[in-house]
Amino acid sequence: MESQVKDGFDSFFQHATGHTPYPFQRNLATSEIFPEVIKIPTGMGKTDAIILGWLWRRRFDPRDEVRLRTPRRLVYCLPMRVLVEQTRDKTKQWLDRLGILAASPGDDNAVTGFAESSMREGKRIAVTVLMGGEEREWWDIYPERDAIIIGTQDMLISRALNRGYGMNKYRWPTHFGLLNNDCLWVMDEVQLMGRGLATTTQLQAFRHRLGTMEPSPARSVWMSATLEERWLGTVDFDPGTNITRTLTLSQGDRNEPAIQSRIQARKILERVETGAGDLKGLAGEILDKHPGGARTLVIMNTVRSAADLHKEISKRKPDAKLVLIHSRFRPPDRQEVVSDLLEEPGPEGTIIVSTQVIEAGVDVSAKALFTELAPWPALVQRLGRCNRAGEYDEAQVYWIDVPTDKKGSALPYTPEELDRAREVLLSLEGQSVGPDWLPDVREEVVHEQVIREKDIIELFDTTPDLAGNDLDVSRFIRDADDTDVQVFWRDFPEEGPGGEEPEQLPHRDEICTVPIGEIRDLVGKKREEAWVWDTLDGQWSRVRADSIYPGITLMLRANSGHYTRAKGWDISSKETVPVIQRKEESTDIDYTSNESAVGGWMSIAEHTNQVCGEMAAILDSLGLDGQWRTSLLEGARWHDAGKAHRSFQALLKKDALEEFDDPPAAKAPRDAWKGRLPARPDADDERRRYFRHELASGIAALQNGRDDLVAYLAAAHHGKVRVSIRSMPGEQRPRDQDTRFARGVWDGDVIPETDLGGGVILPQTTIDLSFMDLGHGVNGASWLARALELRDQPDIGPFRLAFMEALMKAADERASGGGGA
């Protein structure tokens, strides 16, 4: 069997990449124990090893137990945005060559080619990128399918903490559930992760302690050329106990000619006399030392210094092609820059001015490398971008000293990190700094702001506080001086972006990430306008500087400037920003929206039967049975019972509803729905602001003898009614001031007898909102107490409960035709 597995993997790898695997790549894919730590020199193919290793073990390995133990979702976490598209494109190419690439997550086309002849079972696999902005890939409504999800630590870790950046907040629990269950998390280039590194180890410890869905528990892998196991040690994660295997180069790897040429590549180190503060002098030195017909790569420590140096070099009008690359570009513009960067140099060569973004994952090689002094792990990565494959007999590395004796001069690093790195570089002066000649330098990592179990428990509840604010998780994702917001630009009237048809939410191609401090200064000190989408009221609201938090998405006026396609984010630019705008399908973007109810006429029973059918299919594919299956199917049966409430039916035009022959309706064509509820509705208008039918569904389920889990799942399937029940700001009050009310549902409301399909009849039910009271009442525990007990129940816990919410949402959306919420 062992030779069959290895020979099979070699053939698989050859089909995907066009070349045979290195021994470490084969070892990772075919060994009994999957490593938690991968410490391989830069440029050796770690990305190929982990992605294709996961794919082999999940789909192609002939050993049944290996395929079963391999999680169905690969979550590839990158520290920098520049790398995301490159990793995506490479992954798609491999899957396409194997005949297994899905055009979209729901692609049902049969596999072809190598996959058809070699794979035992399974559908095609989609590759999804999480970058913020509106997207229509809908990977999250196919929880039973294998998937590859690629994103930055901002996008992925925030979702794993139930506070996803750049996404609809009502989908937070769905991503929280899916990204903490049945996943293999891969953290690439961990030396760049900052505080996010400790969060990934803590999350892995929490998943183990609090429990995830079987049979494939969530696992994590950390990768870097300089990674030390002790970096992973946190209060709840002990590397000595939790790291069972570290993958490094074997002697067999070192004997490979291609690896030998990489690890023994000659690159001679030399200190340049010009300091980091003299950009004019540095520009001249770079041009003097630039080798024609090849690349010169210049890596600066900040976006500002890189942009300023690029400007100084531009002034000299070099014959060489000049490229500026950093993290603050919109995706289409960034792709153009990366394309220029990767293009084979012409006779005059290419000069690339970059920030740390090029340290990880970008497969580019230069004959001359200039780098500012940086911490040793970062320098090792930068050195790996010079004479990467040993293609030159000799290359040059020039290092630029950075002063550490003035306050702030070492930023974004610490003076101590730079002082230690300087000592190492001085000891290597005039020598080759290829991988085989580098000293083993031990670096200390001090974890600050470590997330604790009580934090993840509290984050399960997505209800804003009484002031309308959400818990801030930025301190667990990035260092305090490295936090970003997302901005995009639009043309809109002088009076603002409101009106009957407000500006659409941004597509991800419009998004640019920018430093939070610079945006706060623009809005606060310079009084520029910025707008944020109000998910409660479904409109754009002008934002104040003190309410701008990490991860927020802001709309700016295009004529305010601050961005050019060639230079990216440039706070000093006054040029009007070209608007990128795409017509997107409607989505559920505010609290009251019922976009998923738009479709053909359908009764509650008919729609519910479809949802239950989708749920059964999902559960069959996942192999979930027993109590989970019963609760999920029953939750699906009750999820839309509240649509029989008169306030939901009142959303439909009276004459249109009268023509429907099987009321109450669960779905109706777009032209059958009334418009927005006016600020002062007529006295006979039975619509209610913020009405949520799923709250009525959950309460009705409890009142009719269903257990707490069924009621919770019925109520939580849109992500808008979950742990706590309370009224909303500006919500319509009943005339009787003593009547309880919340989310448009009033104590004493009557839901008529309704067919829920499957032989289940909801009897006429008078809503009892005493469940929203705290403590124990006549009906027993409050809704809050019941939800918290489910969250804290050892055999359920926060991760499993959120996963079940995700299954509910998936079944409902698939029955509704996909999309919406």
From TrEMBL:
Keyword terms: Antiviral defense, ATP-binding, Helicase, Hydrolase, Metal-binding, Nuclease, Nucleotide-binding
Positions of the HD Cas3-type domain: 597-815
Nuclease listed as a keyword: yes
Record has Nucleotide-binding as a keyword: yes
InterPro entries cross-referenced by the UniProt entry: Cas3-like_dom (IPR054712), CRISPR-assoc_Cas3_HD (IPR006483), CRISPR-assoc_Cas3_HD_sf (IPR038257), DEAD/DEAH_box_helicase_dom (IPR011545), DEAD_box_RNA_helicase (IPR050079), Helicase_ATP-bd (IPR014001), Helicase_C-like (IPR001650), Helicase_Cas3_CRISPR-ass_core (IPR006474)
Signal peptide start and end residues: none
Gene Ontology CC: one annotated term: cytosol
GO terms for MF: ATP binding; catalytic activity, acting on DNA; hydrolase activity; metal ion binding; nuclease activity; nucleic acid binding; RNA helicase activity
GO biological process: defense response to virus
Domain Helicase C-terminal: from-to ranges: 278-446
Similarity comment: family membership: In the central section; belongs to the CRISPR-associated helicase Cas3 family. In the N-terminal section; belongs to the CRISPR-associated nuclease Cas3-HD family.
Record protein name field: CRISPR-associated helicase Cas3
Organism of origin: Methanoculleus bourgensis (strain ATCC 43281 / DSM 3045 / OCM 15 / MS2)
Chain's gene name: cas3
